[in-house]
Amino acid sequence: MNEFTKSFLRSAYKEYYFRWASSIEFPVDIEGREFGYIPFGAGMVRHLSFKNEGVAVAEILRQSPSSVYCSNARYERPTMPIDEKGWLGAELIFDIDATDIPTPCKKEHDLWYCEKCHASGKLPRPAKCSKCGGPTTEFHGICETCLDAAWEHTMRVVCFLTDDFGVEREAIRIYFSGNRGYHLQVYDDRFEQLDQLARGEIAEYVRGTSLPPSQSITSTLRRRTQTGAIGAGWTRRITAYIEQRREGYSGTTQKLVSEAIASQRALVDSSVTTDIHRVFRLAGTLHGTTGMSKTRVMSKDRFDPQEDPYVLAAKAVNVAVSFYPQFRARHRDFGPYKSVTVELPAFAAVQILTRGLGEVV
Ligand SMILES: [Zn+2]
Ligand SMILES: [Zn+2]
Fold first, then answer.
1. Could you tell me the distance, in angstroms and rounded to a whole number, from the CA of residue 114 to the centre of ligand 1?
2. N or C, which terminus of the chain has less Cβ within 10 Å?
């Protein structure tokens, strides 16, 4: 990324923060949170703390960085190294990313490309470019099907939390991550003090990976005398599913159990939920590679991922694109591009520039 491109990105982000600083959503107890940011073309700066929202906004504006993060934990001394911070508790968080959910469309929009000659091809990514032997990178596209799948898994987490853990629906905040999925932040005191191990158990529970193997569930089901949905939690989910599907079903019970789990598990990223020192993207700030904002989602009907998170200006800019696959932004199709200079609206140019696949000219 050259200096010209870097300064274009900074000013595009600054313009957003200047106009829409009020959309930044700070958590409670701001002075006890650790903040961090990534400047364009540089490494992460962490262990920052702000007395109040005004000071934090001023710094975000001044830096106009590529990403801004805030801890889900509260600390006595947020600016100290991790083990000296004095951990006070942390909200339970979930990250649901389409990359982790198997969707049939991935073979259409995911690919590898060569960093040197920009040859590209279908995944799996070869270690070296088949044309020039240069280093290769994976490119993950995004489409409506992928985002719908991520939303579906997000709703499953909400169901687990409300039905199995007794969380009030109002205590769960849902955000579009700014890229390929959704973030959940749970404001329920009962989770605040949980350590890594306990949070890991919750993640494995919603992922359906801590369940006994389906053969053992199947043999338990065979021994039971009652029919219909029984028990609570996963047992109820599985038995209810089987009850619904059994009529006219010719496969094995074991297959039905596996189906019940696969159709209800939520593929959250366990490493995020487990990390009690996480700095999580701050709501209302811009994603570092897409330029989209991390946006609160009140309901799916009232959220358009092709419109609402695109908050950067539409002002046109000339970009010399070395390589970029086809993509969709604000309901418009762009690309594919290869060794070409194109005029693009800023909101579309950003993702090419941040990935180092084009420069402003
Ligand atoms: Zn190559
Ligand atoms: Zn897709």
1. 5
2. C
